[in-house]
Amino acid sequence: MPVLESLLQQTVDVMQRNFKGWSVITTDPDHIAWPEELLTPRMTYVSVAAGTRLQKGSPWATTAVLIVAFIDKGIVADRADVPTAVVLPAR
C-alpha cells in the first residue's frame, strides 16, 4: 500500500526512530484481527487513521485503517531502516 509506505517514511524522517506500519481494508472494522505486537504494553506511540467510503454500486462501505507504531529498540532510524508495511488479513 503506497500510502502506508509514504506515511512510514515521513514518520521516520521526522521522528528519527524505527516504526512499523499495518493496514487493513474491511467492511467490518469492529472485528479486525489486531496483531499481538500492537497489543503489548511496550507500545509507547501509536497513530491510527481511518477512512470510510462507499463505492458507487456497492451495498457496503469499506473502511481503510492505517496504523503506525513506535518500536522501541533503542535504534535511530534513517531511510534505509524503514520497515516494510504489513497488510492485515480482512476477516
Structure commentary:
This protein is an alpha+beta fold and 91 residues long. It has one helix at 2-15, and strands at residues 19-26, 46-53, 62-70, 86-87. The chain contains 1 helix and 4 strands, in the order αββββ. It has a 4-stranded mixed β-sheet, covered by helices on one side. The model is unreliable at 75-85 (pLDDT under 50).
Architecture blueprint of SSEs:
Elements: H1 2-15, E1 19-26, E2 46-53, E3 62-70, E4 86-87
Parallel strand pairs: 1-4
Antiparallel strand pairs: 1-3, 2-3
Keywords:
91 residues, alpha+beta, 4-stranded mixed sheet, 1 helix, flat
Distance between the termini: 18 Å
For the biggest sheet, the summary is: 4 strands, mixed
- Based on CA inertia axes, which overall geometry fits? flat
Sheet/helix structural class: alpha+beta
Give the helix proportion (percent range).
10-25%
What is the number of E strands?
Answer: 4
Strand content: 25-35%
Radius of gyration: 14 Å
Strand order of the largest sheet: 2-3-1-4
Mean pLDDT: 76
Helix count from the secondary structure assignment: 1
Number of domains in the coordinates? 1
Low-confidence stretches: 75-85
Summarize, please:
The chain has 91 residues and is of the alpha+beta class. Helix content is 15%, strand content 30%.
